[in-house]
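Quick entry between incubations.
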Amino acid sequence: DIQMTQSPSTLSASVGDRVTITCRASQDIGHWLAWYQQLPGKAPKLLIFKASNLQHGVPSRFSGSGSGTEFTLTISGLQPDDFATYYCQQNNSYSRTFGQGTKLEIK
Amino acid sequence: QVQLQESGPGLVKPSETLSLTCSLSGGSISGYYWGWIRQSPGKGLEWIGDIYYRGITNYNPSLNNRVTMSLDTSTNQFSLKLTSVTAADTAVYYCARLHFAFDVWGRGTTVTVSS
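Done. Structure below.
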């Protein structure tokens, strides 16, 4: 199985900051990487698909990059609604895998 | 727009079978994969499996062959069965559409395994 490892597990930042979350795959997954945002008590929301494609309706301050085994999610100009937990997920194989999550907290 | 709604018992006894249904509105089951994901209390997301509209299934191997998924194109519903449940299966269960990624999600349903 492909393992997905996110870092950091927790990130403290302030409104207006630029933050980056990293996701590493245990083997090459090409561009088959998605990022999700989950607010407490809510279902996850798709932000980015195929590593760098912004889902319709998602603000442009969210961006994704990477390929192969290393990927990043960047949020430029943090807004209050962005403090949430973020997950990466691979769709390269028929056994999909999520990262363990990164909790973005207010500093 | 496409909406998903999970339904099923909120309480299941240990060793019994958990059964959930996801109902689709505003779209068609045809042409997509449909998945189940769960989240144990305070934990991360775990992919359970998914099913193509033609009936091809992919399951998480860590669930030790306890999972069965099915779908009904005539009713726009798909289902999850998880056998021999234990307390470790207590979670919020989500259904979702897979289109490059899980792009549409249900609100989730809480299932507690307890006697």
